[in-house]
Amino acid sequence: MTDTLVPWDDVLAAYDPALGLEVHVELNTHTKMFCGCPAVFGGEPNTQVCPTCLGLPGAMPVVNGKAVESAIRIGLALNCEIAEWCRFARKNYFYPDMPKNFQTSQYDEPICFEGWIDVEVEGETFRVEIERAHMEEDTGKSLHVGGATGRIHGADYSLVDYNRAGIPLIEIVTKPIMGAGAKAPAVARAYVSQLRHLIVALGVSEARMDQGNLRADVNLSLAPQGTGGLGTRTETKNVNSFRSVERAVRYEMQRHAAVLDAGGSIFQETRHWHEDTGVTTAGRAKSDADDYRYFPEPDLVPVAPSREWVEELRGTLPENPVERRARLQADWGYTDLEMRDVVASGVLVPIEETVAAGASPQAARKWWSSELARRANDAGVDVVDLGVSPAQVAAVQTLVDAGTVNDKLARQVFDGLIAGEGTPEEIVAARGLAVVSDDGALGAAVDAAIAANPDVADKIRDGKVAAAGALIGAVMKEMRGQADAARVRELVLEKLT
Amino acid sequence: MSDLIRKTAAQLADALAAGETTSVEITQAHLDRIGQVDGAVHAFLHVDAEGALAQAAESDARRAAGGPSSALDGVPIAVKDVLATEGLPTTCGSKILEGWVPPYDATVVRRLRDAGMPILGKTNMDEFAMGSSTEHSAYGPTHNPWDLDRIPGGSGGGSAAAVAAFEAPLALGTDTGGSIRQPGAVTGTVGVKPTYGSVSRYGLVALANSLDQVGPVTRTVMDAALLHEVIGGHDPRDSTSITQSVPDLTDAVRRGATGDLTGVRVGVVKELGGEGYQDGVQARFQEAVDLMVGAGAEVVEVSCPTFVHALATYYLILPAEASSNLAKFDAMRYGLRVLPEGVQSPSAEDVMRATRDAGFGDEVKRRIILGTYALSSGYYDAYYGQAQKVRTLISRDFDAAFEKADVLISPTAPTTAFKLGEKLDDPIAMYLNDLATIPANLSGVPGISVPGGLADEDGLPVGVQILAPTMADDRVYRVGAALETLLADQWGGPLLDRAPSLNGAS
Q: Can you give the pTM of this predicted structure?
């Protein structure tokens, strides 16, 4: 069944959206949240487990101090208050991949609360208020075997891998974001994107959305325009790219509007996002009857970070994003327009890393802001997921600077990089992309061009040097763009003047 | 009956040190006694003869090489089946864990092994430690060695009965609302609930995490102190474990054993006596108080008005924590797995439901329901939240009482051992047996139960409870040892000398 959608402009004419984002960040600590098992991916199933993370009878949790430190640093970077005293709580529900049938999380006493970050959308700044950031543990992973879809429905049997059970998570929850109107999808995307940059800068997570290190749940509701109220919300789970966040918000706005226009009601439910088709489908009904029977975890003592420690951690924070942007713009000599373009296309960090890898700021911007951003857009992926690393972009630019390839040939090198054909040097060699600057080969081509265009040659002989362009063009065409244009020009002028 | 089984752990340790006997001899003597009487007593759910004898042989070899691991090296012990033992079944008295063999040791079990103490086996208990009679064990009740038709107390009736019947010189118990002290009282043995957090809970299958504590089950106060010193101390695997160590306990026992209580202020808790307490219990308790006065103690009456709410508070906090703890028994990873009848391709949830229905007994289900209700949204503040506040008030009553007295005393249990089956259909009557022991768990203070004599009306043991402030465990040992000495002088020997021999009982 396909959902009815209201045209975008009609949604905006009748409703105000309220947006809320819950982002789970998987920390990159060496060990799990409550035991000493390695918190790394890729192990054989159920090899990174112990009595505690398997929930064996009698086993007890011990808090990972490094995870608390990461939680505090995230909170500080989000301008949050850091609790002087907080506790873990049990969230009780039955699920086969949850070893204890409760998740050790935090409830009404989160470690970080009341923060904000500013995000920029098309030159306008939105302040996103953070309600809380709390610590919890990840669950295991179910693998449903048999059936067509890999989902539990129709499966013959299921297997559970508990390697992931107990990996530290930080859940960051925004307050409702009101008043974004038409920009709601872009604000959602910009928030998640900026949050990711921040997490990367803090160094507390790999923050790869495609690997599930950073998972976003999108809450959305509509209220009749101008009423200022909050409608019934839906929660779209596990939206795992910036672009999908934007699309999911837009889709839900259009779907909600259709339901409401038809006089219907929105059910409070979780919804699944389908990356391939760009639609959401109904998941579990999530009513107020959901009762997790939270209570303070009696096996753990309260976490009470000293103010001295919090201040010490504040000293380790990366620069705040606004100041950082101003500094980078000055360092790089970008115009305001160029800088805005860079930020909007989400390539600030890649450019920074490309410059750090040795490329000039202008070259880095040229590749990321136009070439790669365009390709990402065409492919419908985030530019950071395109498969080209900042180091590779810098390497390509080094080839350009050395005259090995020109800009046109460089684009073909990017084709090779995206196709996974190897390093830029290997791609140049394999595809035969190097510029020809050998006088023997170029001289022959120039002679041929002069012979084929006697009129042009005469003009140049008469002193009209500007006409050389036509001969250079002929040579470039002949050599399929791989000629060293500057040397061709020199040869033409040597031969005719 | 072999002489070896009548000896206290301290005497066995001395005999081993003097080269008068071996650990293998001692261990074999206890295994023989188990073989002889446990058919009637049913203190054990699992006996590990082979393992215990192997550990005993290692102990003897260690001693021969000149290096015993501890004062109790070679002295065997029984362990309550709620503690994880690597390689030995651990059922918690429940069908749902039938056949489960833990891949790890509880910290206290690890400390027994490190001390060189052979583990005789695992003792019977009420299912998941829920009960005061051991009748809620899924594997049948334990019988009181004083009268096999009566209950041995609970939940740790198996450990207390094993020690009372001379099947083991020592045992480990766990005490959530009195499960060490009340069985001690009704079997004429000694039981100690240490300060909360002073003995590791890692590997103790939690009943109620904020109340549970592991402790010694013995026949003498000195034996309890020796065992307490083996199992106590900080454990980094238990976050609620206290880092400072408790004061020297065996020294406290030696001081107390002089029978001198000059200058000790003893508080009699008004609310833990009177109505509901059996006459013979009250009479023995009053005698104990009088003896202490005679020994120089200054006795004062103290009032702890909130103690009357302790039982209600306990029966909100315990089921709440237990309902969550017991959720892990879901047939997914270990223990019982029951497939629902008449269901084609059952889902994981179907299997969980069928397993929990078949695997848990009625008392466990009752408390899961109570706890689930108490934690439910809309009821949390009225029940669990309110109970936590009362708990704070109970602690304040203790604080105020300990300003007037160094230790508090009361009968351990309101009655002597009742008949098997007598209270099985009346949960409230069963719960009331823990009236005097529960306040200590709610506030975390240490307590001991020492034998106070036999009630006139039924000739069954009565226990006297001594409580001290948090981390002052040495006080319960000092006063407990003093009372033990004073009473033994009066009786002309230990109370257990008057228990039936059980020879030929099986």
A: 0.86
